[in-house]
Amino acid sequence: MSIEFSKEASTAAITSIQRYFEENMDEEIGNLGAGALLGFFLKEVGPVVYNQAVADVQSRMQAIVMELDIEIHEAEFQYWPSSARKRK
Q1: Which residues, 6 or more positions from 34, have their beta carbon under 8 angstroms from its beta carbon?
Q2: Which residues contact 28 (CB under 8 A, 6 or more apart)?
Q3: pLDDT for 17-31, tens place per residue?
């Protein structure tokens, strides 16, 4: 699965990369360089982040499923106790 940003998110990311270079590196990076760097990170690091997010969601969903029997539980064999109360 290819990880891609929307046009707006890509523009914001490129602007952020350029600002990072201005404030933290010895030389600035242009729009083309920042776009290439963003593309590299999306292809190289993006899948790692995506896979970790999927694993986190899967773990959370498994925890929810494991608690279903506690949260959604009906008492069993309730006919006779309620029937005995009615007769008295």
Answers
A1: 14, 15, 17, 18, 21
A2: 18, 21, 22
A3: 999 999 999 999 999
